[in-house]
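Encode chain A's predicted structure.
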Amino acid sequence: MKKILFLSALIVGTSFLATAQKEYKLQYSFKKGDTYEWTQSKSVKQHLPGGGLDQNNESSLKANALMKVVEVTPKGAKFEMEYTKLYDNIPAANMLMDSDGDTTKNLPNKIVRAMKGRKFNFTLAKDGTVESVENDENIWAGLTLANGFKEAEIAPMKQLLEYAFGKNLIKATLEDAMVKYPEHKIKVGITWNNQNEIGAPLPLKTENVWTLESAVDPTAVVVGDGQIATIDSTKVITLQGFKATTNFKGRRVVKSHVNLATGWPETSKAYAEQKGSMILLAGGQIPQDMKMDMELSTDSEYTIKKK
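Encoded structure for chain A:
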């Protein structure tokens, strides 16, 4: 009887050890023609403290898109992407943009309606890096006289959309939903490091520490903890016609449920906080440099589902 109990314990222990020591090579897999439904939901809270300008602003964004693999390469794949729904609510600017809303009396709704179905491309590496974004100008190519827009409206609207949907912002948004994997195999509990950079509109980088928290076929849980910082606090940027410098620091945490077989994150939830300042530089309507302290917090949720 003791031998049987000993053998049972040995078998259980060996099985546990084998499971605990199992290695995984996580990377994105691609097949030409595969299509994914991508959704984004984000809420942003902004606090401008002190100096008699104490303000609290909130905004929300929702977006749905289709992403289709049009070419598979040795390093990754090229995708064709199009938005199928866009919703952006910015109460502080008294602006509501809804691609499914009334377009007869609401110009913002008309703008985002014209963006639906406009195809552009991006390239995704097997490790989750968005290597390039192309043809993003096609997103606002529907803002034409033929589509009912006035000539005086077109140029400023395109400038606004280039700021909100340009290459760097698309890259940042896509990478926000992705897990970036290491080249080597990993086990549960193992950590790895990598970095994300956003060149515009704010020159920020995030130093990420990822951990494989658990892995039970067919799903793994990956968590990330990132330190956010301004790359260059002296770099002059342009924000809606104003020139400024910025200096921010913060933290971003994310939890993703990924498919062990394909590497694709099926759901991701992230929270980020940033604190710092922006200096609006003298010029035009600003007689002298004006410093604005600022605090930002962002809740984001993404889903990616293969059709």
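The CA atoms of residues 84 and 157 lie 20 Å apart.
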